[in-house]
């Protein structure tokens, strides 16, 4: 695989999302329809568990279940990577590289909705620690989807 992995497994609770992923990645990745909180995959078998844009769809107790499953799946010394926007991200002011901030400024109710469905960094860290993860670190990576020439 391009990133150096010998094999990659992808799961999603949505059969439609799995089918779309298969169309993009073909046979390079093995895909399964599964609940990320109980994937049904063998334990102690993976070097990395990557969760992308999942936890904002879950209550905090469900997030803890997800992290417990990730911990079960990982080999000793493995790493979990969680990519999702946090409350802190939502509250950033609008800027040319953060167009969402402008929407939140113009529509405060939209900001309220986003804040309610996002977990803070401290909440996520506490949930990871609660299931046994250690040596936590946070990297802020900015997701750029499109640049606009003007407002």
Structure, explained:
The strands form two sheets. The chain has a two-stranded parallel sheet. Strands 3-4 form a two-stranded parallel ribbon. The protein folds into three domains: 34 residues, no CATH class; 63 residues, no CATH class; 34 residues, no CATH class. The protein is α/β, with parallel strands linked by helices. Strand 3, helix 2 and strand 4 form a beta-alpha-beta unit. It contains six helices and four strands, in the order E-H-E-E-H-E-H-H-H-H.
Give me a quick take on this structure.
This protein is α/β, with parallel strands linked by helices and 151 residues long.
Anisotropy-based shape: globular
Number of domains: 3
Main pleated sheet = 2 strands, parallel
Low-confidence stretches: none
Q: Could you give the distance between the termini?
A: 39 Å
Helix and strand run: EHEEHEHHHH
Alpha-beta content class: alpha/beta
Instruction: Determine the fraction of residues in helical runs and give it as a percent range.
Output: 25-40%
Domain Methyltransferase type: 4-82
GO molecular function: methyltransferase activity
GO biological process, one term: methylation
Keywords: Methyltransferase, Transferase
Which short descriptors sum up this protein?
151 residues; alpha/beta; two-stranded parallel sheet; 6 helices; globular
